[in-house]
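User: quick one
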Amino acid sequence: MLAAVRSELTRLRQPRFLITWFGLMALFTVLVNTIMITFVSGGGNLPPGAPGVAFPTLAEMESPSGLMAGLAAASNMFGIVTLSFWAVATATDYSSGLVRLLVAAEPRRWRLLAGKIGALLVVTAAATTVAALVNVFAAMPAAGAAGISTAAWGTDLIGVVGGAWVHLFLALCAWGVLGLVIAVLTRSAAVAISIGVGYVLVFESLIKMAKDVPSDWLLGTTLGAVASGGTAAVSFGTALALALGYVTLGLLLAGAVFIRRDVTD
Amino acid sequence: MSVVVTTDLTRRFGTVTALDRLTVEVPGAGVIGLVGPNGSGKSTLIRILLGLIRPTGGNATVLGSAISSPRDYASRVGVLIESPAFIPGLSARSNLVSLAHLRRLPLERVDAVLAQVGLVGRDREPVRRFSLGMKQRLGIAAALLSDPELLILDEPTNGLDPAGIVEVRELLRDLGREGRTVIVSSHQLSEIEAVCDHLVIIRFGELIFSGPMAEVMKRTREHIDIAAEHAADTGRLESALVAGGWSVTQADAVLRVAAGADRAADLNRAAAAAGVTLSRLVVAQDNLEEIFLEMTGRVDGELADGRAATDATVA
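Assistant: Done. Structure below.
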């Protein structure tokens, strides 16, 4: 399987692809930190059910974990970015016809799928690192300018940054797998991205707004909870287990389709 | 030893039968032409042999292994399926390196195949800058990467300029002489005629012919192409010849008469008797294209008459 991972990593090493992915991660980190800190310092509150956003309170911002609060706040945006790039990397194999060559060279299709996932996990780890580093450098000046105390931010720095990295990485892996699953099913990056974005921004928001419907189990909420290391509504363990369930189901579906389906592209 | 053996191989797509109990043996070593009209099932056959799609019925072996287990022969088979498929943002070299990793091959093979197809010097450019011909060469390089015993090439000269076509023709001949088996699926019958030792013709998913090229070429017949000195006389000449019992077909200003060299003088006299002076009288031999059309039907439209028109979209 290592051969399939190396092969996929070589294909992912496209400067334009990686720069765009990492650039978007950095851009959203800066944007969300700036907006979040301005919002929190001004005492603002978001309307309930706002899509993909979970801003901390001022007290939380001034705690040691406040340094990395931007990552959790932007997690669903990062999720959509990650979903999109996983979908593009997967669907390109179909649109370019490369899937024919790959399956002819490695008929054990599960290896191809596992190799792609392995390679995308490596790039996702790098993208998470980019976001975490940019967050550290963006949050400090933004908080200082907004008058938020950063005195506690140096406490257990490695633990806080490492924890935030792990939480975000786990959430992004699940987002990415979702993108891969939809791309395998639809064989189209555009359709996969549309479904992903439409789900988070429209479908899940509508469900959240319907007060009688419990929303803790929803994908975006669950992965947001994973990225935050747990929320008041969903513990980290519950969210992680639920996310694992989503990922397992998705992979079983994608695997069955990819292995069984005729390669006619 | 036969490199490919199919027995009653069948594949249906809904109500359309792309392969209809195809039974054929492809001999090892040399260049084998796989030809047939559009929708004849060539691509379906290739995809089944490569494990890309599964047959509805029947069975087949490739290099002695059942197609139900393509992993047993995948490393010994190189393929170029339809258009070359690569990541456009990656260099030619990176695209090949990626495939070399997947096949667990040493990276020296990348240099070797780049040299073999004449892409050294351009190999670090992104594939998106490549012309169709260069992409085709890269596709052939990818097929050669594992130094395979069996090469399956679908339209390998597609997009190549005349010099490129000659190069690929030489390459195919060399590969065949080296003891490999090269299966070439192509619409360019002149190419097939020029390089192939053996021919497999299928139509509507059924085998029409399988045998040495020499055997096919035995079916060639002589014909005589004639042209009237004045184009206005062509119709009158044709009528006179038909009335005289000659078998005539017209293509623009040239009349093709089904007759051998021994009838050339009679033909000339018949034209003179009709009061037409000939500006051209050429005795020629049918080529593979003419034999192929004779065996499979003349044009796609004609082929579709007898079968569901959707057949043409299958393969």
